[in-house]
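Example record for the data management plan.
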Amino acid sequence: MIAASADAGSNSVHLFVAVVAGHRLEPLLDESAFLGLGGVVDDRGRLGRQKRAELASTLSRFAGIARDLGAATTTFVATEPLRRASDARLALRDSERVLVKRANATITPEAAVFDPQGRLLYHGRIDNWYEDAGRARPAATTHELQSAVEAAISGKPVPLASANAVGCYISDLE
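Corresponding structural encoding:
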């Protein structure tokens, strides 16, 4: 299996692609792009539009390289300075809807729980607060997401693999 990892750090974004053979990694590519995100966050407390665009472009390019090399998975890790940037949430978007598709999500809000191997354990509503569009209960009586997360953490099977979500359709899915 070929796997890839991209790490957005203080100075650079690093891509590592390798063949995974048992407990060994056989490197195929080890590449970095200097973006200097840490200095920008230190100075302004945020990334800003330009650095977010540079980061998105770099991660997109790295994802394409990993795919071209045959990577079955690419893990993106955001370390410093994204933990400190006030606008980090704007930089961490699934613009190609990769996770949305892996989660089988079609409605927002819809949640997904994956195991450490990337297998989808649960997808669906967070709870049953909404019975139908525009019809809410006074309080939720079931908590499907919480139950799935608790089961996954404890290593037990999730009690329910999916539950229909109520909300708006994700309009730009292919």
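Summary line stored alongside the record: The helical segments are 37-44, 48-68, 88-91, 98-102, 144-154.
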